Each structure stands twice: as C-alpha cells, then as structure tokens.
Protein: Pyroglutamyl-peptidase I like
Organism: Zosterops lateralis melanops
Amino acid sequence: VKPADLELSKRGLGENINLRIMQLPVVYQKAKEQICKIWTTLQPLVVHVGLAPSATALIILEQCGKNKGYQERDACGFHPEGACCVLDGPEKIESAINMKALWKNISVEGIDIILSRDAGRYICDYTYYTSLYYGNGRAAFIHVPPLSESVTAEFLGKALQTIILAMLEQCGEQRETDHTGGK
C-alpha cells in the first residue's frame, strides 16, 4: 500500500485537513502502542488502510472491529494475550462512520466497493478494534487490493482520497485527520 500512501500524500485532502500517513508494523503490541499514542496526542479521525486478503480488485469498507479470536501469530511470532484486543472490552465496536450509507452514496470508476462486517482477525482487525476502542468509534478501515496493472498507485491514491473525503463529509469533520496503513 506504500506507493498509494505516497500518492494520497501528494493529493492531500484539502486546505483545512492535516493528513498524516503512518505505517504500522505487523506486530500486535507495537501496532497497539502506536495507535494508543495517536489517540492520546491527536484526537483525530483515523482511517486505517490495509491490504485485502485476496487479490480481487475490490475496495472493502469495514463497519466494525472484533475483540476476540486473534489466534494467528504476527510477524514476530506472537499473538495477543487472551487472543483479544482489549481484555474485558466489548465483543465488537461499530465505527461512528456509517459505512453502509457511504457505500450506497460513493462510487469510484474502475473498481467495485463492497461493505464488510469482518476485517479478518489479524493485524487489520486488531488495529481497527483498538482504534475504535481508544477513539470512541472515530475510526474507519478500508481494505484495498494489491497494486497491479489495473490498480495503480495513482488510481488507488485517488480512490482513497475520494472515500476519505466522503467520510469526512459524513461526520462533518474539518479537524486533524490521520491515515495509518499496514504492510
């Protein structure tokens, strides 16, 4: 996703929006530490972008994050304590952004956008739930396809810009925005 991040950075989100792009490690604990730091220092709207588990040319809008079921080991060979994001946290947390409304009202020429309620119980879902938990629902997650001949960095950057601007419009947000991407 890194070239698309650079493309989004070049495009920006408008004059009144401070876009910050960060890459999170594929390590549960380190990713959680960075997310906690974001929420304690910035109080933003965080839009996570992760690589979709399949090579299908789809953009997937994730509505909620799940707390439990994290059995798969991260890049360092660990999984979270109790196989969950937050001990005693709610089973799932919904984004304050209505992804269904966003999905119905947005289109990006050249790629299908679908809605999902399961971000996959790995680093993507883990970071999303953690961000929703610490940010009181002020987070979003977008799964994107890998880059290819038809899905270029420029194309994906433009698609992300369109989707994130629609999210900001939906929540009337004109403050600081963070965009975090995983490997």
Notes: The first strand starts at residue 19 and ends at 24. Confidence is low (pLDDT under 50) at residues 173-178.
